[in-house]
Specification:
By secondary structure, the chain is mostly helical. The protein has twelve helices and four strands. The longest helix has 33 residues.
Length: 300
């Protein structure tokens, strides 16, 4: 169960498991060296040699007897390894022109940007509408999945209390809040690093003053980022990812400044810079309670 929970937690965990599994199967099958040779010498000839070798091996040792089916399996085996090694893989049955990227590993994933960027003249309006519906449902699913991960983590490692430490807020954190709103920042809506566990009062009185859910209080957003940084800095379970957090900050603050940051101390200083207009005197105690400590030792 622990392993299954790790795999289900995020796409990269599933990919890590898949890469280890593929390597183990290839080693046990005695054909790992064939893949290694191609990943070292990437030419059309070495690609054809590897693919032919894999097809012959599969037909000889499995019930599969169609080279087309072998080719489909070949793609799912080679590309995760190529991504791991930052190498070329296979695309449409041939040697890829560029190194394999993460997007190319996601099977049948609907990209919401493609679905809403305009109807392709080669697809019908009915197909286009269905594509948009599926994209919307997939987005909702990934957001709810991320919220469950944050809630489960907070219940287990923070006793269900709010991530934002605040006097008088000692009730359970039943609200999972987007630090950067999902409707304005859909690219990071399903990132656990963009979600924070809050009490109902914090959610509807502080993040959304007077329960105006279309409005975000910028001063309290700063407090949320400090608290989230604390959570991520102290995470020993790999639930959160430092690089993903930098991506969230770059997207949410419309900058690239976080790309070259590799430690929490510099990250917090940079967050401070972007919220230098912070003016809520009543929140000063919240800054003291939520600003990460021992930053000089904390590496991303």
């Amino acid at each position: 169960m622990k392993l299954l929970e790790f795999i289900a937690m995020r796409d990269m965990n599933a990919l890590l498991f898949l890469q280890l599994y593929i390597e183990k199967v290839l080693l046990d099958s005695g054909i790992y060296d064939d893949f290694q040779q191609f990943l070292e010498i990437q030419t059309k000839d070495s690609f054809k040699k590897l693919k032919d070798s894999f097809i012959n091996f599969t037909i000889e040792h499995t019930p599969i007897n169609q080279s087309v089916e072998c080719g489909r399996i070949f793609t799912k085996i080679l590309n995760p390894l190529a991504f791991k090694k930052h190498k070329k893989g296979t695309k449409r049955g041939h040697l890829s022109k560029t190194i394999i990227t993460l997007d190319e590993l996601k099977y049948n994933r609907i990209n919401w940007r493609d679905a809403h960027s305009g109807k392709d003249k080669n697809i019908t309006r009915k197909e286009y509408e269905k594509m948009g519906f599926i994209a919307q449902k997939y987005t909702q699913y990934t957001i709810q999945k991320a919220k469950k991960i944050v809630r489960r983590y907070n219940d287990k490692f923070n006793n269900g209390l709010p991530e934002v430490k605040q006097n008088g807020e000692n009730v359970n954190a039943t609200q999972i809040h987007h630090i950067f709103p999902a409707n304005k920042f859909p690219n990071i809506a399903d990132f656990v690093e963009n979600l924070i566990a809050l009490t109902p009062n914090q959610h509807f009185s502080y993040t959304h003053p007077n329960n105006q859910t279309n409005y975000i209080d910028r001063d309290f957003q700063y407090i949320c980022l400090l608290a989230k940084t604390n959570t991520i800095m102290n995470d020993l379970t790999q639930t959160y990812d430092f690089n993903n957090y930098k991506l969230v900050l770059n997207e949410g603050l419309n900058t690239k400044d976080f790309e070259t940051i590799f430690d929490f101390a510099t990250l917090v200083v940079t967050i401070d810079y972007f919220y230098s207009d912070f003016k809520a005197a009543s929140y000063q105690i919240l800054v003291e309670h939520n600003k990460p400590k021992n930053l000089c030792k904390a590496k991303g």
